[in-house]
Amino acid sequence: MPTCTPFAMPISLSNADAGAVANADAGADLDPTSQLDIAGDLLTLLRTTTTEPRPDTQLEALTLAVAADLPVLLWGEPGIGKTAALTQLAAALDLPLTTVIASVHEPSDFSGLPIVGDDPAEQGVPMAPPDWAVRLVRAGRGLLFLDELSTAPPAVQAALLRLVLERRIGSLQLPPGVRIVAAANPRSSAADGWELSPPLANRFVHLQWTHDHEVVVRGLGGTWPRATLPRLAPERLSEAVDFARRAVCALLAARPKLVHQLPNSESRRGGAWPSPRSWEMTLRLIAFATASGVSRDVLSLLVRGTVGDGPGLELLAGLDRLDLPDPETLLADPAGADLPQRGDLRQAVLDGVVAAVRARPERDRWNAAWALLVRALETGAPDLVVVPATTLASLRRDDWDVPAAIENLAGVVTLSRRADEAAARAKRATGARR
Amino acid sequence: MGTRVRTDTGAEGSSDASPGAAGTRALDLDKLFAARLQAARARPYLATALFALHTVESRQVPTMGVDRYWRCYVSPDFVDRTPVEELAGVWVHEVSHLLRDHHGRSDRFAKERGLTGPGERLRMNIAADCEINDDAFGDGLVKPEGVVDPAFLRLPEGQLMESYLLQFQLGAWTTEFAWLDCGSGADGLEREWELGPDGAHGLSEQERDAVRFRVAQGITGRPGSAPEGWKRWAEEAFHPPQPWRALLGAAVRSAASAPGAGEDYSYGRPSRRSAGVPGTVLPSLRRRPPHVSVIIDTSGSVSDTELGSALLEVAAISRAVGGRRDLVTVVPCDAAARIAHPLCKAEGIPLLGGGGTNLRAGFAKALRSHPRPDVIVVLTDGQTPWPGSRPPCRTVVGLFPRHHRRTSWDEDDPDYVPDSPPDWARVVQIG
Prior knowledge:
The complex is a heterodimer.
Chain A: H1 8-14, H2 18-26, H3 32-47, E1 50-53, H4 57-67, E2 72-75, H5 82-93, E3 97-101, H6 107-111, E4 113-114, H7 120-123, E5 127-128, H8 131-139, E6 141-147, H9 154-166, E7 168-169, E8 172-173, E9 177-184, H10 198-201, E10 205-208, H11 213-220, E11 223-226, H12 237-254, H13 276-292, H14 296-307, H15 309-323, H16 327-332, H17 343-359, H18 363-379, H19 386-394, H20 410-433
Parallel strand pairs in A: 1-11, 2-9, 2-10, 3-6, 6-9
Antiparallel strand pairs in A: 4-5, 7-8
Helix pairs in contact in A: 1-2, 4-14, 12-13, 12-15, 13-14, 14-15, 17-18, 17-19
Chain B: H1 14-17, H2 29-42, H3 47-52, E1 54-57, E2 64-66, E3 71-74, H4 76-81, H5 84-99, H6 102-113, H7 118-136, H8 161-165, H9 184-187, H10 205-221, H11 228-236, H12 244-257, E4 262-270, E5 283-288, E6 292-297, H13 304-320, E7 328-333, E8 341-342, H14 359-368, E9 375-380, E10 394-399, E11 426-429
Parallel strand pairs in B: 1-3, 6-7, 6-9, 9-10, 10-11
Antiparallel strand pairs in B: 2-3, 4-5, 7-8
Helix pairs in contact in B: 2-5, 5-7, 10-11, 12-13
């Protein structure tokens, strides 16, 4: 049994003649080199982990935003795997990763270091870029990760923001193949006064980076997740652009107030807010999301991180409506209509159909709407049909005959009456109790 | 009329699973949906959420329960023995759990306090029910038999689930709720009859957010019909109030370290790097600690506890940004500004005053002091006239909320409403 403790090892390594001491101590069968080899073996064993496929919405969102060439700002507590995520992203996009810790640099490292030549008055002072920037430009492509933005002094942040927004380091222009991701600690845990002013916040896609307890536990147990990252489908590009333009324009045409809204409350400061610039970013993100077919959850993270929660949710609600069948198509072919399963969406469709009939009241359309209501009744919950049926009945003209299909809706009338009776009883009961 | 709704008997053998139960009756969907219609009529602002629920027949659930994917599990026997008007109340009750995100809040509460076990989850279900039930019923909805409300636990009404959780323990008088079960949508604990995340007809996270957002929008768009509790929910559903300490800290920090104060690059002294670049002048990192003036509203309307906590907070923050204690000045102010006290002189600063408020005097006093402050922090309840023009330094206002405005604070002019803090100040709600 070896008597050499692991703690004895560093001493024996730092000291040239300590090998003899260790040898004498541990016995003749152990020398320091072989100890180091064993340590290496142990480290290799520790590093050997497997991966398993697992959907990861925040990594998918990050990938899409980077693919769309938008600057991303990851907000997250230190030590939750932002760097690990970036490594995986770089591998997936096949880009070399360059990490720059912002807080250990000076502003001139990003705006260029002045180099004095022979005759400054005649030739000027060139601003020399740092070596990592030169290598990045020479490679022509890469993923630049600006870490620890929150602990850098304001002047460094200002210099960095020029790098992010104008893609310039000193006199060097970053090639288009370079993508930029930054990371910052949330305001509550930032030690210094780091805070984005509204114009700067508006240029980023803000992603909240959190860790999943289950993933961490499984990963430390030896199995890390492997996300299948979204791939753009070349044949869907033009369709995606159409869809994105339609979605954003439909919302902004109906809600002009959402085009530009400076954050007004303290709790929303430093985050995403809507402006023409961030709407353009949103449009790009919707197109990328559509072309790659990612889930709405991923798009939700991206959109809310670009224009803010309120406008983002309105846009997403609008997208849900865009997915709904068009009332005119339904009226044209009530027998083949495919109504959504979800009750609230189905009711929105039926309301839309009735509104379409009201907008252009014709006998055929009115009859088709009744057929649709019967179909809705046959395939879903009856209470959804009550309000559209009542409204549709009120649209009847004198010379229109009651369609035979109405017979099938007798149950709805019973249901409605039953609810009315219950309401009356409830009113009596609550009235009496008060 | 027969069954028209596809009920996923997700638990297909669910009727075999409970052989002893009188589970032979089919689910009376007409009764159930008549109740939902009545609920939607009584609470039109909840209609979207009610219709978004997907009904699943289950013989294992004691009454009705929801899961976090917006599926509603219904016991046929329960529907059979409950009148329509009571079922309507149950619908509203169950959908309230989902809208108010009780499962997410329960999970967070359990994680923060390290709570485990079904007993704790039962407590969460009871507390969640208390939050809902104190204003869910009445006005067209009958309170179902045997629901829990705060009065039963001898607790005050109108509080949030989290505060109820701190106030009661399971005991003799809660044992009769042991059957109480609103599903994982209420307390976050998965039940065996639930279909889980992969089952059919669940709502994804984005869809859940969308439904909640539509309901919230409906309430804020037509605030007349909704009760106070729902209006508050709608305002905070997607913008939960942030902890004031973090916000005040961020505001003071960013005011104190913005250009002109705090740590930044300066040409006042050359950088050590200049040696390597002969002939050029590089800036070096200099620190100029900010002077912070704290104006404290000592009028009668602000309580000592409020002032004490906020003052301690400001002192701690300004120390953290590098303001030495002697650079922090305190100006107590009611109708007139008193003497400016350096914070270093004594632990206790005499907070004189107690009369009416005029913060203009406080601003004037703070700006006259030498050296001039870089940042002014005002702690007040906002019932004061504000300076007419922007002061020549950054201003952060910590505002103590005042909800009870029924009695006017100005006896001479009962209709007087004080101005809200001006645009040039950053305002943080405290408490």
